[in-house]
Amino acid sequence: MSSQWPPADRPAAILIAGPTASGKSALASALALRHGGVVVNTDSMQVYADLRRLTARPEPAEEARVPHRLYGHVDGAVNHSAGHYARAVAALLAELDGRMPVFVGGTGLYFRALEEGFSELPPVPETVRAAVRAEAEGRPTEALHADLAARDPAGAAALRPSDRARVLRALEILAATGRPIADFHGARIPGPLAGLPLRKIFLAPDRALLRTRIDRRFEGMIAGGALDEVAALRARRLDPLLPIMRAHGVPALIAHLDGTMPLDAAIARGQADTRAYAKRQFTWFRHQMGPDWAWTSPEAVAV
After folding, report:
1. SS3 of 97, please?
2. Is the domain of 295 the same as that of 263?
3. What is the pLDDT of residues 220-237, one digit of tens each?
4. Residue numbers of the domain that contains 164
5. Do residues 195 and 253 both lie within one domain?
6. What torsion do the CA atoms of 16, 17, 23, 26 make, to the nearest 10 degrees?
7. What is the pTM of this model?
8. 3-12, 153-162, 268-277, 286-295: least confident range
9. Burial level of 244, CB count in 10 A (0-12/13-18/19+)?
10. Same domain, yes or no, for 82 and 23?
11. Is the pLDDT of residue 5 over 70?
Protein backbone atom coordinates (compact mmCIF):
# COMPACT_ATOMS: atom_id res chain seq x y z
CA MET A 1 0.00 0.00 0.00
CA SER A 2 1.15 3.56 -0.66
CA SER A 3 2.99 5.29 2.18
CA GLN A 4 0.07 7.55 3.08
CA TRP A 5 -3.49 6.31 3.05
CA PRO A 6 -5.63 8.16 2.54
CA PRO A 7 -3.75 10.95 0.78
CA ALA A 8 -4.04 14.25 2.60
CA ASP A 9 -5.97 15.92 -0.22
CA ARG A 10 -8.97 13.58 -0.34
CA PRO A 11 -11.20 11.40 1.85
CA ALA A 12 -10.40 7.77 2.48
CA ALA A 13 -13.59 6.70 0.71
CA ILE A 14 -16.84 7.91 -0.78
CA LEU A 15 -20.05 6.33 0.54
CA ILE A 16 -23.20 6.46 -1.61
CA ALA A 17 -26.44 5.23 -0.09
CA GLY A 18 -30.05 5.63 -1.06
CA PRO A 19 -33.24 3.76 -1.86
CA THR A 20 -33.31 1.11 -4.52
CA ALA A 21 -33.52 2.40 -8.13
CA SER A 22 -32.29 5.88 -7.15
CA GLY A 23 -29.34 5.95 -9.56
CA LYS A 24 -26.63 5.04 -7.04
CA SER A 25 -24.71 2.67 -9.30
CA ALA A 26 -24.35 5.17 -12.15
CA LEU A 27 -23.08 7.83 -9.75
CA ALA A 28 -20.64 5.41 -8.13
CA SER A 29 -19.16 4.46 -11.49
CA ALA A 30 -18.81 8.11 -12.50
CA LEU A 31 -17.05 9.00 -9.25
CA ALA A 32 -14.79 5.96 -9.41
CA LEU A 33 -13.75 6.90 -12.96
CA ARG A 34 -13.19 10.51 -11.90
CA HIS A 35 -10.91 9.52 -9.04
CA GLY A 36 -9.27 6.44 -10.55
CA GLY A 37 -11.03 4.36 -7.94
CA VAL A 38 -12.96 1.15 -7.42
CA VAL A 39 -16.70 0.63 -6.94
CA VAL A 40 -17.37 -1.50 -3.86
CA ASN A 41 -20.75 -3.15 -3.31
CA THR A 42 -22.65 -2.28 -0.12
CA ASP A 43 -25.86 -4.14 -0.93
CA SER A 44 -26.69 -7.33 0.96
CA MET A 45 -28.39 -8.97 -2.04
CA GLN A 46 -25.88 -8.03 -4.72
CA VAL A 47 -23.20 -10.04 -2.93
CA TYR A 48 -24.94 -13.20 -4.17
CA ALA A 49 -23.98 -14.90 -7.41
CA ASP A 50 -27.44 -16.37 -8.06
CA LEU A 51 -29.54 -13.30 -8.89
CA ARG A 52 -27.74 -10.81 -11.14
CA ARG A 53 -30.94 -9.62 -12.85
CA LEU A 54 -33.32 -9.62 -9.91
CA THR A 55 -30.91 -7.74 -7.64
CA ALA A 56 -29.94 -5.23 -10.37
CA ARG A 57 -26.24 -5.97 -10.20
CA PRO A 58 -24.10 -3.92 -12.60
CA GLU A 59 -23.86 -5.37 -16.09
CA PRO A 60 -20.61 -7.06 -17.19
CA ALA A 61 -19.86 -4.16 -19.56
CA GLU A 62 -20.05 -1.70 -16.65
CA GLU A 63 -17.84 -3.93 -14.50
CA ALA A 64 -15.30 -3.94 -17.36
CA ARG A 65 -15.41 -0.14 -17.68
CA VAL A 66 -14.51 0.52 -14.03
CA PRO A 67 -13.35 -2.01 -11.39
CA HIS A 68 -16.16 -3.45 -9.26
CA ARG A 69 -15.56 -5.48 -6.10
CA LEU A 70 -17.66 -7.65 -3.74
CA TYR A 71 -20.39 -8.28 -6.31
CA GLY A 72 -21.71 -11.80 -6.90
CA HIS A 73 -18.95 -13.48 -4.88
CA VAL A 74 -21.16 -15.34 -2.36
CA ASP A 75 -23.16 -18.50 -2.99
CA GLY A 76 -26.88 -18.31 -2.24
CA ALA A 77 -26.62 -21.10 0.35
CA VAL A 78 -24.52 -18.83 2.60
CA ASN A 79 -26.17 -16.76 5.33
CA HIS A 80 -24.07 -13.69 4.63
CA SER A 81 -23.98 -11.05 7.38
CA ALA A 82 -22.70 -7.55 8.09
CA GLY A 83 -19.79 -9.15 9.91
CA HIS A 84 -18.85 -11.18 6.85
CA TYR A 85 -19.12 -8.03 4.78
CA ALA A 86 -16.93 -5.89 7.05
CA ARG A 87 -14.22 -8.55 7.11
CA ALA A 88 -14.29 -8.76 3.31
CA VAL A 89 -13.93 -4.98 3.08
CA ALA A 90 -10.98 -4.98 5.47
CA ALA A 91 -9.22 -7.51 3.24
CA LEU A 92 -10.09 -5.52 0.13
CA LEU A 93 -8.73 -2.23 1.48
CA ALA A 94 -5.36 -3.88 1.99
CA GLU A 95 -5.26 -4.65 -1.74
CA LEU A 96 -6.30 -1.27 -3.19
CA ASP A 97 -2.86 0.38 -2.93
CA GLY A 98 -4.32 3.82 -2.32
CA ARG A 99 -7.05 3.71 -4.98
CA MET A 100 -10.27 5.45 -3.93
CA PRO A 101 -13.01 3.01 -2.85
CA VAL A 102 -16.52 4.18 -3.70
CA PHE A 103 -18.96 2.21 -1.56
CA VAL A 104 -22.46 2.04 -3.00
CA GLY A 105 -25.66 0.27 -1.95
CA GLY A 106 -28.80 0.44 0.07
CA THR A 107 -28.08 -1.80 3.06
CA GLY A 108 -27.92 0.37 6.15
CA LEU A 109 -26.40 -2.29 8.39
CA TYR A 110 -23.52 -2.75 5.96
CA PHE A 111 -22.78 0.98 5.99
CA ARG A 112 -22.97 0.99 9.77
CA ALA A 113 -20.55 -1.96 9.95
CA LEU A 114 -18.02 -0.02 7.87
CA GLU A 115 -17.57 2.52 10.66
CA GLU A 116 -19.14 1.26 13.86
CA GLY A 117 -18.04 -2.33 13.42
CA PHE A 118 -20.01 -5.43 14.26
CA SER A 119 -20.65 -7.93 17.02
CA GLU A 120 -19.07 -11.34 16.73
CA LEU A 121 -21.89 -13.82 17.39
CA PRO A 122 -20.94 -17.32 18.47
CA PRO A 123 -21.24 -20.14 15.94
CA VAL A 124 -24.36 -22.28 16.24
CA PRO A 125 -23.80 -26.01 15.67
CA GLU A 126 -25.83 -27.33 12.77
CA THR A 127 -27.50 -29.90 15.03
CA VAL A 128 -28.76 -27.12 17.31
CA ARG A 129 -29.96 -25.01 14.39
CA ALA A 130 -31.79 -27.97 12.90
CA ALA A 131 -33.46 -28.78 16.23
CA VAL A 132 -34.66 -25.20 16.77
CA ARG A 133 -36.04 -24.96 13.25
CA ALA A 134 -37.71 -28.36 13.44
CA GLU A 135 -39.49 -27.25 16.61
CA ALA A 136 -40.50 -23.99 14.92
CA GLU A 137 -41.83 -25.69 11.79
CA GLY A 138 -45.46 -24.74 11.20
CA ARG A 139 -45.66 -22.34 14.14
CA PRO A 140 -46.55 -18.67 13.59
CA THR A 141 -43.66 -16.26 13.94
CA GLU A 142 -45.56 -14.35 16.62
CA ALA A 143 -45.68 -17.51 18.75
CA LEU A 144 -41.92 -17.96 18.37
CA HIS A 145 -41.46 -14.33 19.36
CA ALA A 146 -43.54 -14.98 22.49
CA ASP A 147 -41.27 -17.94 23.32
CA LEU A 148 -38.26 -15.68 22.95
CA ALA A 149 -39.87 -12.99 25.12
CA ALA A 150 -40.38 -15.50 27.91
CA ARG A 151 -36.68 -16.43 27.90
CA ASP A 152 -35.02 -13.24 26.64
CA PRO A 153 -37.33 -10.23 27.13
CA ALA A 154 -34.75 -7.65 26.07
CA GLY A 155 -33.84 -9.55 22.93
CA ALA A 156 -37.48 -10.00 21.96
CA ALA A 157 -38.23 -6.32 22.56
CA ALA A 158 -35.56 -5.39 20.01
CA LEU A 159 -37.13 -7.52 17.27
CA ARG A 160 -40.31 -7.20 15.25
CA PRO A 161 -42.66 -10.10 16.12
CA SER A 162 -42.98 -10.78 12.38
CA ASP A 163 -39.21 -11.01 11.71
CA ARG A 164 -38.95 -14.78 11.59
CA ALA A 165 -35.29 -14.99 10.55
CA ARG A 166 -34.01 -12.81 13.40
CA VAL A 167 -36.33 -14.36 15.99
CA LEU A 168 -35.06 -17.81 15.06
CA ARG A 169 -31.47 -16.56 15.17
CA ALA A 170 -31.99 -15.32 18.73
CA LEU A 171 -33.56 -18.65 19.73
CA GLU A 172 -30.65 -20.52 18.17
CA ILE A 173 -28.12 -18.46 20.16
CA LEU A 174 -30.06 -19.19 23.33
CA ALA A 175 -30.18 -22.89 22.58
CA ALA A 176 -26.49 -23.09 21.70
CA THR A 177 -25.07 -20.97 24.54
CA GLY A 178 -27.76 -20.57 27.19
CA ARG A 179 -27.21 -16.82 26.95
CA PRO A 180 -29.29 -14.04 25.34
CA ILE A 181 -28.06 -12.62 22.08
CA ALA A 182 -27.52 -9.19 23.68
CA ASP A 183 -24.66 -10.66 25.72
CA PHE A 184 -22.66 -10.84 22.51
CA HIS A 185 -23.41 -7.32 21.31
CA GLY A 186 -21.07 -5.60 23.76
CA ALA A 187 -17.74 -6.67 22.28
CA ARG A 188 -17.72 -5.00 18.90
CA ILE A 189 -15.00 -5.41 16.31
CA PRO A 190 -14.09 -1.97 14.87
CA GLY A 191 -15.22 -1.27 11.32
CA PRO A 192 -12.64 -1.07 8.52
CA LEU A 193 -13.37 2.65 7.94
CA ALA A 194 -13.53 3.65 11.62
CA GLY A 195 -12.01 7.06 12.27
CA LEU A 196 -11.18 7.80 8.63
CA PRO A 197 -12.29 10.92 6.70
CA LEU A 198 -15.26 10.00 4.52
CA ARG A 199 -17.55 11.69 2.02
CA LYS A 200 -21.11 10.44 2.57
CA ILE A 201 -23.95 10.92 0.11
CA PHE A 202 -27.57 9.82 0.42
CA LEU A 203 -29.52 10.02 -2.85
CA ALA A 204 -33.09 11.15 -2.21
CA PRO A 205 -34.99 11.27 -5.52
CA ASP A 206 -38.56 12.45 -5.93
CA ARG A 207 -40.78 9.79 -4.34
CA ALA A 208 -43.33 9.59 -7.17
CA LEU A 209 -40.59 9.29 -9.78
CA LEU A 210 -38.86 6.63 -7.69
CA ARG A 211 -42.02 4.51 -7.48
CA THR A 212 -42.37 4.66 -11.25
CA ARG A 213 -38.73 3.69 -11.74
CA ILE A 214 -39.08 0.75 -9.36
CA ASP A 215 -42.09 -0.61 -11.22
CA ARG A 216 -40.51 -0.22 -14.64
CA ARG A 217 -37.22 -1.71 -13.50
CA PHE A 218 -38.95 -4.78 -12.08
CA GLU A 219 -40.74 -5.32 -15.39
CA GLY A 220 -37.39 -4.98 -17.14
CA MET A 221 -35.89 -7.56 -14.80
CA ILE A 222 -38.55 -10.07 -15.77
CA ALA A 223 -38.04 -9.34 -19.47
CA GLY A 224 -34.29 -9.74 -18.96
CA GLY A 225 -34.42 -13.23 -17.47
CA ALA A 226 -35.08 -12.77 -13.74
CA LEU A 227 -37.74 -15.49 -13.75
CA ASP A 228 -35.19 -17.99 -15.09
CA GLU A 229 -32.81 -17.00 -12.28
CA VAL A 230 -35.51 -17.63 -9.68
CA ALA A 231 -36.37 -20.96 -11.30
CA ALA A 232 -32.73 -22.05 -10.96
CA LEU A 233 -32.69 -20.86 -7.35
CA ARG A 234 -35.94 -22.72 -6.61
CA ALA A 235 -34.43 -25.92 -8.00
CA ARG A 236 -31.70 -25.76 -5.35
CA ARG A 237 -34.30 -26.22 -2.56
CA LEU A 238 -32.46 -23.91 -0.17
CA ASP A 239 -33.64 -23.03 3.33
CA PRO A 240 -36.46 -20.49 2.81
CA LEU A 241 -35.09 -18.39 5.69
CA LEU A 242 -31.80 -17.71 3.92
CA PRO A 243 -31.40 -14.05 2.93
CA ILE A 244 -31.39 -14.76 -0.79
CA MET A 245 -34.73 -16.57 -0.54
CA ARG A 246 -36.26 -13.39 0.87
CA ALA A 247 -34.91 -11.07 -1.83
CA HIS A 248 -37.61 -8.79 -3.20
CA GLY A 249 -39.58 -10.67 -5.81
CA VAL A 250 -38.26 -14.14 -4.99
CA PRO A 251 -41.18 -15.40 -2.82
CA ALA A 252 -43.81 -14.17 -5.28
CA LEU A 253 -42.01 -15.50 -8.35
CA ILE A 254 -41.53 -18.88 -6.66
CA ALA A 255 -45.25 -18.89 -5.91
CA HIS A 256 -45.83 -18.32 -9.61
CA LEU A 257 -43.48 -21.16 -10.53
CA ASP A 258 -45.31 -23.37 -8.03
CA GLY A 259 -48.56 -22.62 -9.82
CA THR A 260 -50.19 -20.73 -6.95
CA MET A 261 -49.93 -17.18 -8.32
CA PRO A 262 -50.39 -15.74 -11.83
CA LEU A 263 -47.32 -14.02 -13.26
CA ASP A 264 -48.95 -10.59 -13.36
CA ALA A 265 -49.85 -10.91 -9.68
CA ALA A 266 -46.31 -12.06 -8.84
CA ILE A 267 -44.87 -9.06 -10.65
CA ALA A 268 -47.25 -6.73 -8.84
CA ARG A 269 -46.28 -8.28 -5.50
CA GLY A 270 -42.58 -7.90 -6.26
CA GLN A 271 -43.09 -4.27 -7.26
CA ALA A 272 -45.09 -3.53 -4.11
CA ASP A 273 -42.50 -5.20 -1.86
CA THR A 274 -39.73 -3.19 -3.51
CA ARG A 275 -41.62 0.09 -3.13
CA ALA A 276 -42.21 -0.68 0.55
CA TYR A 277 -38.51 -1.45 0.97
CA ALA A 278 -37.54 1.88 -0.59
CA LYS A 279 -39.79 3.65 1.90
CA ARG A 280 -38.09 1.80 4.77
CA GLN A 281 -34.67 2.76 3.42
CA PHE A 282 -35.59 6.45 3.61
CA THR A 283 -36.85 6.02 7.17
CA TRP A 284 -33.90 3.92 8.35
CA PHE A 285 -31.22 6.28 7.10
CA ARG A 286 -33.04 9.34 8.41
CA HIS A 287 -33.23 7.94 11.94
CA GLN A 288 -30.25 5.59 12.19
CA MET A 289 -27.39 7.37 10.42
CA GLY A 290 -25.63 10.55 11.49
CA PRO A 291 -25.91 14.15 10.29
CA ASP A 292 -22.68 13.84 8.31
CA TRP A 293 -24.64 12.22 5.45
CA ALA A 294 -25.45 14.77 2.74
CA TRP A 295 -28.99 14.20 1.45
CA THR A 296 -29.30 15.30 -2.14
CA SER A 297 -31.11 14.62 -5.39
CA PRO A 298 -29.21 12.39 -7.84
CA GLU A 299 -28.86 15.15 -10.42
CA ALA A 300 -27.37 17.61 -7.90
CA VAL A 301 -24.23 15.61 -7.05
CA ALA A 302 -21.01 17.06 -8.46
CA VAL A 303 -18.85 14.32 -9.96
Report:
1. coil
2. no
3. 999 999 999 999 999 999
4. 126-184
5. no
6. 30
7. 0.85
8. 3-12
9. buried
10. yes
11. no
